């Protein structure tokens, strides 16, 4: 199966997918990386892995809607079976979500529905939870509200700051994303309302 990965930052989740995709048994290959950020470390990872990448920066477009169309077309060029948002820090328009709905997957560094949005790690820490984690979910037109596919729990330890906690979450997150995307690619994804089953 063909994966297109959208990333905005360092790309440790992308790195994990690139490491897994070399195994033919994994069932999926990253065929394209699309980013909004010309400085994304994800671009270097794609280059080093010999995977095509495209920068679609909001600065290059007249408005948000045009940028969304640009991102949508850039993704389509790669003929994806699945689109994976791995540390992608922009909200995608309903038109994008509808175009890829059912095959658009996101990873979030908290146990949704708790702590959605751009500061899930900070919000969980501030709330004083003892257990947080990460969630792989289908993207719908809300922010981090789509049907949940898989989750992994991560303890909050005394003395954690946001960075320490996020790094601990990212260890679990990378593993969960690689495992979940591989299973979806090999077995398929079935959605009935908010219930998602693989295979
Ligand atoms: C991940 O924790 C992702 O869930 C969040 O930002 C982080 C990105 O990490 N949105 P990376 O760019 O994959 O290293």
Automatic annotation (TrEMBL):
<dbReference type="InterPro" id="IPR004607">
    <property type="entry name" value="GART"/>
</dbReference>
<comment type="function">
    <text>Catalyzes the transfer of a formyl group from 10-formyltetrahydrofolate to 5-phospho-ribosyl-glycinamide (GAR), producing 5-phospho-ribosyl-N-formylglycinamide (FGAR) and tetrahydrofolate.</text>
</comment>
<feature type="active site" description="Proton donor">
    <location>
        <position position="108"/>
    </location>
</feature>
<dbReference type="InterPro" id="IPR001555">
    <property type="entry name" value="GART_AS"/>
</dbReference>
<feature type="binding site">
    <location>
        <begin position="11"/>
        <end position="13"/>
    </location>
    <ligand>
        <name>N(1)-(5-phospho-beta-D-ribosyl)glycinamide</name>
    </ligand>
</feature>
<dbReference type="InterPro" id="IPR036477">
    <property type="entry name" value="Formyl_transf_N_sf"/>
</dbReference>
<feature type="binding site">
    <location>
        <begin position="89"/>
        <end position="92"/>
    </location>
    <ligand>
        <name>(6R)-10-formyltetrahydrofolate</name>
    </ligand>
</feature>
<dbReference type="Pfam" id="PF00551">
    <property type="entry name" value="Formyl_trans_N"/>
</dbReference>
<dbReference type="InterPro" id="IPR002376">
    <property type="entry name" value="Formyl_transf_N"/>
</dbReference>
<feature type="binding site">
    <location>
        <position position="64"/>
    </location>
    <ligand>
        <name>(6R)-10-formyltetrahydrofolate</name>
    </ligand>
</feature>
<keyword id="KW-0808">Transferase</keyword>
<feature type="binding site">
    <location>
        <position position="106"/>
    </location>
    <ligand>
        <name>(6R)-10-formyltetrahydrofolate</name>
    </ligand>
</feature>
<comment type="similarity">
    <text>Belongs to the GART family.</text>
</comment>
<feature type="domain" description="Formyl transferase N-terminal">
    <location>
        <begin position="1"/>
        <end position="181"/>
    </location>
</feature>
<keyword id="KW-0658">Purine biosynthesis</keyword>
<comment type="pathway">
    <text>Purine metabolism; IMP biosynthesis via de novo pathway; N(2)-formyl-N(1)-(5-phospho-D-ribosyl)glycinamide from N(1)-(5-phospho-D-ribosyl)glycinamide (10-formyl THF route): step 1/1.</text>
</comment>
<dbReference type="GO" id="GO:0005829">
    <property type="term" value="C:cytosol"/>
</dbReference>
<dbReference type="GO" id="GO:0006189">
    <property type="term" value="P:'de novo' IMP biosynthetic process"/>
</dbReference>
<feature type="site" description="Raises pKa of active site His">
    <location>
        <position position="144"/>
    </location>
</feature>
<protein>
    <recommendedName>
        <fullName>Phosphoribosylglycinamide formyltransferase</fullName>
        <ecNumber>2.1.2.2</ecNumber>
    </recommendedName>
</protein>
<dbReference type="GO" id="GO:0004644">
    <property type="term" value="F:phosphoribosylglycinamide formyltransferase activity"/>
</dbReference>
């Amino acid at each position: 199966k063909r994966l297109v990965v959208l990333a905005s930052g360092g790309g440790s989740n992308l790195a994990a997918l690139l490491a897994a995709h070399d195994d033919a048994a994994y069932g999926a290959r990253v065929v394209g990386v699309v980013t909004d950020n010309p400085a994304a470390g994800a671009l270097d990872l794609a280059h080093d892995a010999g995977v095509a990448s495209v920068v679609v920066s909001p600065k290059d477009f007249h408005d948000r809607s045009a940028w969304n169309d640009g991102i949508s077309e850039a993704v389509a060029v790669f003929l994806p079976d699945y689109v994976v948002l791995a540390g992608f820090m922009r909200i995608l328009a309903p038109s994008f979500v509808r175009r890829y709905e059912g095959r658009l997957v996101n990873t979030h560094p908290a146990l949704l529905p708790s702590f959605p949005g751009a500061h899930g790690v900070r919000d969980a820490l501030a709330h004083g939870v003892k257990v947080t984690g990460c969630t792989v979910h289908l993207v719908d037109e809300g922010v981090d509200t789509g049907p949940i596919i898989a989750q992994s729990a991560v303890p909050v330890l005394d003395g954690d700051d946001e960075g320490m906690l996020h790094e601990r979450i990212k260890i679990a997150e990378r593993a969960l994303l690689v495992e979940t995307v591989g299973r979806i690619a090999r077995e398929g994804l079935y959605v009935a309302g908010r219930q998602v089953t693989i295979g």
